[in-house]
Amino acid sequence: MEDFENRIGPAVEEFVRWSSPVLQFARFVTEDTEINGYPVGAGDRVGLFYCSANRDESVFDEPGQFKLQHSPNPHLRFGGSGPHFCLGNQLAKTELRNLFRELLTRLKTVEFGQAPSGVRPVGDIMRVEVDLDKCTGHGICESIADDVFEVQDDGTVLIHENERPETDRDRMQQAVTQCPAAALRLVD
Length: 188
Prior knowledge:
Alpha-Beta Plaits, 3-stranded antiparallel β-sheet, two-stranded antiparallel ribbon, 5 helices
């Protein structure tokens, strides 16, 4: 708790950079322009991937490392800036500050241990989940990744192996975004 008030601010910013409820957004281009040398035309749809932006090597020193004192920390977790900036950002940061203040004043010790055997590092896997209450069995996910998804006779989707290697991210993201019932989600 020593110097908590001066240390919690940068720590909260790193928590926010590292993990966020907003993974991506899509926007429509309003006028012809270029993004990193690639031409995009008015009306084109572009994807904003906040997770990727917050691991940008040209912006962050050691972007793949969780460092409580990461500085500078120009993360985009609350939508960057402009009209889509999250109005609740200060509330979220206040809640994190208070959570850690309470934890650190109530716990006598915090110990870091080894992950149980067989548990892979977080960066190497992702999980995909299906909400059976929403699933309508369209089968689009199965057409994208039939080694992962299988439509059952009852119209629900079975996931053969819900932990997938990071290399499958594009296929899993495509299945999630194309599910007409919005029944799939990726869990990092």
